[in-house]
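Appendix B. Chain record.
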Amino acid sequence: MNRLVDRTKEVPKNQLMMLKMLVNQAYDHMGLANTQMIATLFDGITRHSPEGIWFKQRAEEVGFKQVVAERDSSDPIPDSKN
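Structure tokens predicted for this chain:
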């Protein structure tokens, strides 16, 4: 790791800045910003869905590990209205 740091210290700052801009531009073109925005929207929607509300209530009852095990099992999830 120290060797990499030492090598990086030798690169002129303007080249590092331009390389960083290039990498950020590549991520932008891959849609990273839009993906993060959509993920935030979907997270908010699912947290307030009947299933999301059930998951939160069930986690408070039996704990996070147990509710994840129930969710990931092949057993049907109980009706969220109960």
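Further analysis of this model is presented in Appendix C.
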